[in-house]
Specification:
The complex is a heterodimer. Chain A is of the alpha/beta class. Chain A contains 13 helices and twelve strands. The longest helix of chain A has 18 residues. By secondary structure, chain B is mainly α. Chain B has two domains: 85 residues, no CATH class; 175 residues, MetI-like fold, CATH 1.10.3720.10. The longest helix of chain B is centred in the middle third of the chain and has 36 residues. Chain B is flat, with a radius of gyration of 25 Å.
C-alpha cells in the first residue's frame, strides 16, 4: 500500500465561516499510481475541486482547516509539510490546470514568460534556457509556430490555445501528477476533444498520473482508469472505469448517468434528471446525505450514515442497499412509484 | 501605436476650440470692466475710456474678439505685402500690467510645475505605498489606520488643510521651539530668504497632494485586493512561486493600471495650476496669476493663461494614455487581438 504515488486517506477539509462550518470535503480516500488517470466526478459543490486544491496547498487557511486525514505524496505528508517544502513540490512535481483558460493567464505578461516561470523557479533555469523550454513546450502541446507565439500575450490566443498554453505550463517541470480541474468545461465541444486527446498523448509520453475533475461523464469515460463519484463532500462510489460505468451501484451515480442526453432519445420523459439541489454543506442532511433526492430512500437512510463498503473487487459504494438483489437501476422516476 | 497617437492629437482640436469659446463667452457675462478697474478710483474721461477699450479690442462683440484672438494665436500669418510669416503665438498683453501674457506665463509656470511634481511625487510614494501596506496587511491595525486616515484626508477641504498646516508648522512650531524650527508658509523664497528654495515647497506640496494621495491609496488597496482574487493569481501560486513573487510579479502590474491612470489625470489637473493651494500659500504659480487676473478682469491674462494651461494638460493626458498602453498589452495591441 505504501508504494502508491499519491495516497489520500480519509481527508477532511472544513471551512469555518460566519454561517457555520462548511464540510467541503468530509472523508475522501483514494490512491493514484504512475501513468494512471483518476476521474473525479460530481455536481458543483460536491468537494471535488477542494480535494485537489487541498493537496496543492492552495486553500487559504483560515477559513479552511484540515480536520482529519492525510495526503501522502511519495510517502511524505503534504498536510504536515512546511509551506516552503510544499511550494517546492507545487508546479514542479504536482501541477494543476484550471477550468477557465480565459482568466487563468496573466493578461499583462507574455505567454512564454508565464509558461517558463515554473522552470525558472524550480530548476533555476536562465532566461534563455527558460525561453527555449517554453518554445519546446508550446510545440509539445501543438501550438503552431511556437518560436513566434512564445512572445504573444494571452489576449492574442484563442480559448483552446490558451488551455494548451496552460497545459504546457503545467508540464514545464515534468510533473509526476497533473491535476486538471474541469479543463474542458469552458471550451467548445470540438476543442474539448482535442484537449483530452492532448492530455492522453502527454500522459503516454511522460508517464504522469492525471487527476481529472469534471462533472462530465463523457470526459470520464474517455480518459479515466478509475472513477471516484463524490456527493456533498463524501465519496459515494469508487472503482475502475469498467466497474463504475458497467455496473454502477449507487443511486446518485445512476441519477448522473440518466441525466445525460443520448443520441436517439425521442421523448422528453427518457431524460431523468436528479430532482432537487445539492445540499448546503453547512447543514448536511442526516443519515445518507443524498436521501432527500434519492428515489430509493427508506427509513434507514434518514438516520444511518452509509459507509463506503466493498461490493466486488475494488468496487465500493456508499449505499445501504448496494449489492442487494432487488436493488437495481431503473429510470429513477418509475422506480420511485414501485419501491416506495 | 502611431495611429493611436495621431487619433488622440485629432481629439485635441474640438477640445481646444470648445474650451477657448467657452472662455470668451464667460468674459462677456462676467460683471466688471477691466478698463474701469485699471483706472482705479478715478473716473476716466469718456473719450479716453472709449479709446482704451478700442485699443484692447473690447468695443467689438465677443465673437469678433474670439476670431481676432485666434488670428493672433496662429503661428502663421499671411499678408500680401510680406507673404507668409512665421511668428510665435501672440496671446496679447495684460491690461493691468501691460506685459505680454506669454512672458508672464513663462515666469509663473515653472513654479506651478515644481509644485505639481512635488505633489505627484508625494502621491506616488505615499499613495501607492500606503495602499500596498493596507492591502497586504488587510484587516490589521495598519489597514484600519490607512482607511481611516484616507477618509479623513478626503473629507478635509484643501484650503482649510493649508491654513491649518500654516498655523501648526509656521506659527505654533515657531513659538514652541523659540524660533529654531519652523517652516515657511508663504511665497517661494528668493535672495536673502532664510530657507533653501525647496523648503518652501514642503507645506504647499503636502497640501496639494493630500486629497489625491488619499484617493490613490484607496484605489491601490482595492485594486490589489481585487487582483488577489483573480484566477491568474491562483495560477501563479499553483506554479510554486513565492508569495513575494506572486505579489510583485503577478499582482502589482495589473493592480497599477488604474492607479497610474488616476495619478496621470491628477498630474494633468495639478499642472493646470492649483488655484486654492497657490492662493493660500501665496505661491507665485500660474494658478495665482489667473486668480489675480480674474479679480482684475484682466481678460487677456485669463484667456491666454488658460489656453496655455490647456495645451499642457492635453499633452500630459496624451503621455499618460501612452504610458498605460505600455503597462497593458491589451491596449497596445488591441487592434489585432483574437479573443
Amino acid at each position: 500500500m505504501a508504494d502508491h504515488l499519491l495516497e489520500v486517506d480519509d481527508l477532511k477539509m472544513h471551512f469555518h465561516t460566519r454561517d457555520g462550518v462548511v464540510k467541503a470535503v468530509d472523508g475522501v480516500s483514494y490512491t493514484l499510481d504512475r501513468g494512471e488517470t483518476l476521474g473525479v466526478v460530481g455536481e458543483s459543490g460536491s468537494g471535488k475541486s477542494v480535494t485537489a486544491l487541498t493537496l496543492m496547498g492552495l486553500i487559504p487557511m483560515p477559513p479552511g482547516r484540515v480536520e482529519g486525514g492525510d495526503v501522502r505524496f511519495k510517502g511524505r505528508s503534504l498536510i504536515t509539510m512546511k509551506d516552503e517544502e510544499l511550494r517546492a513540490i507545487r508546479g514542479n512535481e504536482i501541477s494543476m490546470i484550471f477550468q477557465d483558460p480565459m482568466t487563468s493567464l496573466n493578461p499583462v505578461y507574455r505567454i512564454g514568460r508565464q509558461i517558463a516561470e515554473p522552470v525558472r523557479v524550480h530548476k533555476g533555469a536562465s532566461k534563455a534556457e527558460a525561453r527555449a523550454r517554453a518554445i519546446e513546450l508550446l510545440h509539445l502541446v501543438g501550438i503552431p509556430h511556437p518560436e513566434k507565439r512564445v512572445d504573444d500575450y494571452p489576449h492574442q490566443f484563442s480559448g483552446g490555445m490558451r488551455q494548451r498554453a496552460m497545459i504546457a505550463m503545467a508540464l514545464a517541470c515534468d510533473p509526476d501528477i497533473l491535476i486538471a480541474d474541469e479543463p474542458t468545461t469552458a471550451l467548445d465541444v470540438t476543442i474539448q476533444a482535442q484537449i483530452l486527446e492532448l492530455m492522453q498523448e502527454v500522459q503516454a509520453r511522460t508517464g504522469a498520473a492525471i487527476i481529472m475533475i469534471t462533472h462530465d461523464l463523457g470526459v470520464i469515460a474517455d480518459i479515466a482508469d478509475r472513477v471516484l463519484v463524490m456527493y456533498a463532500g463524501k465519496p459515494v462510489e469508487y472503482g475502475t472505469l469498467d466497474e463504475v460505468f458497467g455496473a454502477p451501484q449507487h443511486p446518485y451515480t445512476w441519477g448522473l448517468m440518466d441525466s445525460v442526453p443520448r443520441a436517439g432519445m425521442t421523448e422528453k420523459s427518457e431524460l431523468c434528471p436528479i430532482n432537487g439541489q445539492p445540499p448546503s454543506l453547512i447543514d448536511v442532511p442526516s443519515g445518507c446525505s443524498f436521501h432527500p433526492r434519492c428515489p430509493y430512500a427508506r427509513e434507514r437512510c434518514l438516520t444511518e450514515v452509509p459507509a463506503l463498503r466493498n461490493i466486488q473487487g475494488e468496487h465500493k459504494s456508499a449505499c445501504h442497499f448496494s449489492g442487494e438483489p432487488w436493488f437495481a437501476r431503473g429510470c429513477s422516476l418509475d422506480v420511485q412509484s414501485e419501491v416506495v | 501605436m502611431g495611429r493611436y497617437i495621431l487619433r488622440r492629437f485629432a481629439q485635441f482640436i474640438p477640445v481646444f476650440f470648445g474650451v477657448t469659446l467657452l472662455l470668451f463667452f464667460i468674459t462677456t457675462v462676467l460683471p466688471g470692466d477691466p478698463v474701469a478697474l485699471k483706472a482705479g478710483e478715478k473716473q476716466l474721461p469718456p473719450a479716453v475710456y472709449a479709446a482704451l477699450r478700442h485699443s484692447y479690442g473690447l468695443d467689438k462683440p465677443w465673437y469678433i474678439q474670439y476670431v481676432n484672438y485666434l488670428g493672433a494665436l496662429s503661428p502663421v500669418h499671411y499678408t500680401p505685402k510680406a507673404g507668409l510669416q512665421f511668428t510665435g503665438p501672440d496671446l496679447g498683453e495684460s491690461i493691468s500690467t501691460g506685459r505680454p501674457v506669454t512672458q508672464m506665463f513663462s515666469e509663473t509656470y515653472p513654479y506651478t510645475a515644481e509644485l505639481a511634481f512635488t505633489a505627484i511625487g508625494l502621491e506616488i510614494i505615499f499613495g501607492i505605498g500606503i495602499g500596498i501596506i493596507a492591502a497586504v496587511k488587510q484587516y490589521t491595525i495598519w489597514d484600519t489606520l490607512a482607511t481611516l486616515g484616507s477618509s479623513i484626508l478626503v473629507a478635509l477641504p484643501v484650503f482649510w488643510l493649508g491654513l491649518m498646516l500654516q498655523y501648526l508648522f509656521g506659527i505654533l512650531m515657531k513659538e514652541w521651539t523659540g524660533g529654531s524650527f519652523y517652516l515657511p508658509i508663504s511665497g517661494s523664497g528668493g535672495p536673502g530668504s532664510p530657507f533653501d528654495p525647496w523648503v518652501y515647497l514642503v507645506l504647499p506640496g503636502i497640501t496639494l497632494a493630500s486629497v489625491s494621495t488619499a484617493y490613490a491609496a484607496r484605489i491601490m488597496r482595492s485594486q490589489l485586493l481585487e487582483v488577489a482574487g483573480q484566477d491568474y493569481v491562483r495560477t501563479a501560486r499553483a506554479k510554486g512561486l513565492r508569495e513575494r513573487s506572486v505579489l510583485w510579479g503577478h499582482e502589482m502590474k495589473n493592480a497599477l493600471i488604474p492607479v497610474v491612470t488616476f495619478i496621470g489625470l491628477d498630474l494633468g489637473a495639478m499642472l493646470s495650476g492649483a488655484i486654492l493651494t497657490e492662493t493660500v500659500f501665496n505661491w507665485p504659480g500660474v494658478g495665482l496669476m489667473i486668480y489675480q487676473a480674474i479679480g482684475r478682469r484682466d481678460y487677456p491674462v485669463v484667456v491666454g493663461g488658460v489656453t496655455l494651461v490647456l495645451v499642457v494638460v492635453l499633452v500630459v493626458n496624451l503621455l499618460v494614455d501612452i504610458s498605460y498602453a505600455f503597462l497593458d498589452p491589451r491596449i497596445r495591441l488591441g487592434a489585432n487581438a483574437e479573443g
